[in-house]
Specification:
Elements lengths: L5 E6 L3 H11 L5 E7 L2 H11 L3 E5 L7 H8 L6 E6 L5 H6 L4 E4 L4 H18 L7 E5 L4 E5 L5 E5 L2 E6 L2 E5 L3 H8 L4 E5 L2 E4 L3 E6 L5 E5 L4 E3 L2 H13 L4 E3 L2
Parallel strand pairs: 1-2, 1-3, 3-4, 4-5, 13-16
Antiparallel strand pairs: 6-7, 8-9, 8-12, 9-10, 11-12, 13-14, 14-15
Helix pairs in contact: 2-3
Amino acid sequence: MRQAEWKALIADDEPAARRGVRQLLAAYPEFSVAGECSNGAEVIAALESSAPDVVFLDIQMPIIDGFEVIRRRTAERLPEVIFLTAYDQFALSAFEAGALDYLVKPVSEARFATTMKRLLNRLRATEQPTRDETIVVTTTRCATALNISEIDWIEAAGNYTQLWVGSRSYFLREPLHLLEERLSKYGFLRAHRHALIRLDRVRELTRDDAGLLVVCLGSGVRIPISRRRSAAIAAAVRQIGMGVRRAR
């Protein structure tokens, strides 16, 4: 059985309408139903507790209606919203509120399928990996945006850090420890007190005559690993299928 990737919340004051949406969703194993709500107050609580990826939201509900849910929650803190209603006069307001789609009850399978195609495209698009962050560095001529994916390794240089791209380097006025926090999600690891290496740039891991680890990067640069960092670096390298050999 296919594992559900996303969670849906169904909000409607009519049990039959909630049941109808649940039945239509059953044809989409990518979704599990995180819960059902019968009024706006329940919706606001459920959005906080279950963090759904999409909410099928009735407009006319007791206590707090669908539009008021959006106003209170704010669009920035909402999942994808698909409005449900028995009336079509709210369509313009629904789209102005940021709804992905607007379904008039009773919903046909064909109309629901159109909505689900749009929803799946939206959710899958948001899962695509974002482009690497860029760092603005200065050269003797100008400032330039350096893509992080280009950087092989980084070393401390007084009040600056020196970013190495092959045989070329760029200076950045930022301490190494702050840069380490910023770039750890891109696979940068501390090699020793004054250097960070990018794991996917490591081409070989060896031990020198004294038994200390040394990484060789694709650019040919060899960087020693401190004893304190050796275990972590060796484990990380083994995870990518690379062994350690004795230097000749």
